[in-house]
Protein: Leucine-rich repeat-containing N-terminal plant-type domain-containing protein
Organism: Salvia splendens
Amino acid sequence: MIAYAFLTTIIAMSLSTDQTALLSLKQHITSDPFAAVSRNWTNSSSVCSWIGVTCSSRHHRVAALNLSHMSLSGTIPPQLGHLSFLVSLDLKSNLLSGAIPQVLEILIII
Ligand SMILES: *[C@@H]1O[C@H](CO)[C@@H](O)[C@H](O)[C@H]1NC(C)=O
Ligand SMILES: *[C@@H]1O[C@H](CO)[C@@H](O)[C@H](O)[C@H]1NC(C)=O
Ligand SMILES: *[C@@H]1O[C@H](CO)[C@@H](O)[C@H](O)[C@H]1NC(C)=O
């Protein structure tokens, strides 16, 4: 029971790391003409149900981020590198500047 609670806490903390990383990205978006991210990425729903976000069923962590064709402007914050289970990042057809964190050794489409 204690072990179970402990494990649950670790999983919750880990997904909240992903949430913090994505909220940081949201804060760095200066223009979101379709209000995709600005309206949908809120704390009232799980990160895994956010637009463009796919969680792995195995780890229950953010595994893919697909914000392609959303006409987003802004910068990519280094906190995006905290998505430690991310395997796919698609940012095609946006105006996002800034470096993709080097810790991400994944499929990246820009
Ligand atoms: C965000 O978008 C997803 C997918 O379209 C939807 O299921 C979810 O309810 C939306 N959440 C909010 C807070 O609008
Ligand atoms: C959303 O949740 C994060 C982390 O739990 C918190 O830091 C942030 O202040 C919250 N934002 C809002 C608008 O409630
Ligand atoms: C991202 O979404 C677009 C539109 O749905 C799709 O065409 C594209 O293949 C997706 N990218 C990845 C890496 O799955």
